[in-house]
């Protein structure tokens, strides 16, 4: 069974990237995943992975951890740890993640910095990314990503995120390029309890993916979320619980061809002096 999974990973690697399951292309954090794998306007610690410019929007420092289980296979699971610190010059972020199992896995470790410049927040991220295949060795490279958003009004903003802007490859000795993706999104807040998100994500090698998501706050501490994707069609649902310092988020995704996914993340915010 393990050998079968291994060969599926080996020969299906390009398709895995297209399916948005590796650490570079997947969206991190159960809140964003519950709203349809949104990337641009998360504005929380998970912005380190999704859009580093969103780190500048944080009101306080914080740390979060997450776990994703896709299609019931541990070999497709992801474990994340991410943190952000507010400093005078802006916001510093760090993150590490591991995807896969013993036979095939990918991991990354990096740092990010974001700052608010008027109505615009900009951020960049530099990370070390490694791919390992048992019996074939491993390769690593440095990757640079960039993101930002512009608040056009208190209730409306636009943003963009570019992952792997450096066009890095699996390793310096490899001709296989890592995915490069561009996301464009809008955020609208018609009332305080309701958020509306719309995004378009384009990997340079595949068709665009259109995403739409909603978040509704029933109370100040409980939130209901849902989202939808195209190419392929996917539905998402989730719930979030939040106190002054703690947050707990869960997301459920359904892919008609492959099955269901489950995501959970836990966050803690530090009080600011």
Could you characterize the architecture of this molecule?
This protein has one domain: Porin (Beta Barrel), CATH 2.40.160.60. Helices cover 9% and strands 57% of the residues. It is built from four helices and 14 strands. It has a 14-stranded antiparallel β-barrel. A hairpin with a 2-residue loop joins strand 4 (104-117) and strand 5. Keywords: Signal. It comes from Algoriphagus locisalis. Residues 1-19 form the signal peptide.
Please provide a brief summary of the model.
This protein has about 270 residues and is mostly beta strands. It is about 10% helix and about 55% strand. A 14-stranded antiparallel β-barrel has the order 1-2-3-4-5-6-7-8-9-10-11-12-13-14.
The CATH topology label is Porin
CATH hierarchy class name? Mainly Beta
Low-confidence stretches: 1-20
Number of helices: 4
**What's the CATH H-level homologous superfamily?**
Outer membrane protein transport protein (OMPP1/FadL/TodX)
Average pLDDT across residues? Answer: 88
Roughly what percent helix? under 10%
Global outline: globular
CATH architecture: Beta Barrel
SSE arrangement, N to C: HHHHEEEEEEEEEEEEEE
Largest sheet entry: 14 strands, antiparallel, barrel
Work out the strand percent.
Answer: over 45%
**Structural class estimated from helices and strands:** mainly beta
